[in-house]
Amino acid sequence: MPHLVIEYTNNLENFPEAHLLDALNAAVIASGQVQNEQDLKSRVVRTEQFVIGADPTALRGFVHAELRLLAGRTPEAKRDLSDRIAAVLREFTPHPEGMLVQLSVDIVDMDRGAYYKGSL
């Protein structure tokens, strides 16, 4: 905990996966909402098959970030995290000419009683 998953469409060429993850981790850790930096697990998933809307000729893409945290943070803390993540996405997401690129962020509460974490 927490888990940060970034999904992006494969038509966003030269997507800076490693740089984006570094910047996102720094932003989330700087929020003060992560007690131990080694607990933050982030990854990027390139989406090969996707559909946006109903117009097959439209040039569209998306980047979606989902931050999963143990429940208990205030709405203000969640909004701050969402804003921090969105700012990094705006900075690092490629914007090919003529393409509509949608950005979204979701902060998800995880059930403390059901979450398991262990180490080997």
Describe the structure.
The chain is α/β, with parallel strands linked by helices and 120 residues long. It is built from two helices and four strands. It has a four-stranded mixed sheet with strand order 2-1-3-4, with helices on one face. The longest helix is centred in the C-terminal third of the chain and has 18 residues. It is elongated, with a radius of gyration of 15 Å. The model has no long low-confidence stretch (mean pLDDT 95). It comes from Comamonas sediminis.
Structural key phrases:
120 residues; 4-stranded mixed sheet; 27% helix
Largest sheet: 4 strands, mixed
How many β strands by DSSP?
4
User: Strand-and-helix sequence, N→C?
Assistant: EHEEHE
Broad shape: elongated
* Order of strands, widest sheet: 2-1-3-4
Helix content: 25-40%
Low-confidence stretches: none
State which percent range the strand residues make up.
25-35%
Average pLDDT number: 95
Structural classification: alpha/beta
N-to-C span: 16 Å
The Rg value, from CA coordinates, equals: 15 Å
User: So how many helices?
Assistant: 2
Protein name: 5-carboxymethyl-2-hydroxymuconate Delta-isomerase
InterPro entries: 5-COMe_2-OHmuconate_Isoase, Tautomerase/MIF_sf
Organism: Comamonas sediminis
